[in-house]
Write a structure and sequence with these properties.
This protein is mainly alpha-helical. It is 54% helix and 11% strand. It contains twelve helices and seven strands. A hairpin with a 2-residue loop joins strand 3 and strand 4. Helix 4 crosses helix 9 and helix 11 packs parallel to helix 12. The longest helix has 46 residues.
Amino acid sequence: MTTRPTIAERSQKTTRRSSNSSAASGNRSTDDTGTTAASNDEPGAATKPAAVPSPGDSSAARFFGYKFKDQGLLKLALTHSSLAYESNPEGTRDPGSDNERLEFLGDAVLGLIVAEALYRRHPELREGDLTRLRASLVSSRHLAQVAQRMQLGPMLLLGRGEAHSGGQRKPALLANMLEAVIAALYLDGGLTPARSFIHRHIIEPAEASLSVMLHSSEPISGAVGDYKSALQERLQATGREQPQYILIDQSGPDHQKRFRIEVRAGGVNGAARTLASAEGSTKKQAQQEAARLALASLDSSAQAKASRNGDLETGAKSALQKIAEKVVR
């Protein structure tokens, strides 16, 4: 005859089943959207894609302070065509599967907002000067510098081949992605978030460069912030040799190096002299800062010389006037 379990034994089995169920559910967590996701401790769990980094904000839904209503737009802006192609190598690629269309729109939005900002900030400038400044601000070279400063490279979603070739560091890809991000901001929230992003990250950090360009007596080409090119053009225009950048000191641990660079140039008589020196976390950064300081020093010297010449001219006119008065008398 089969012996039936007692009430106590049935209660113990129920308790054990409940405990096992709770332990299993403890290996799963619920994200912000209410979706249950397997933890890394669960055997065979799929790896969850890394959230888009957001400096200063722990929420993956924010991108440099802006909260996207449509996260798909941001992901699309960060997706390079190489990844879209690898996802469907034999089929016809969907034009909406990568950021190229967004790049097209972002270029137009960027041009409009930069033109508006320059028009409002510089009522004293004529069309030619405004055009020159706008071209510098929206150039691929400048946009790549902005993307590098913002550390957008690691966010770029690439195919395996492009990733292996260093695509996250390629200036052209970074500039295109930045334009696509601007378009995503515009489509998600209109001109206000796009304008705020462009002012904060593209226009305002370049104000010092714009000032140098505006007050320089020589034309400056290249991207805003490229003080090395500006210094080279200034020296060439005055018949001096090309500047040389000398590493004179470096300090700090490997992960926090500091470099001191000195920029030197020969004068019209050939004697080299130090124009300026500066520090930076990279050699390139220190070189650009040294070039900026050198340009400022040259501007100051030119203004002082013009002032002295003006005083001499005034003095000469005064002396001639006195002589003329004596002759008349």
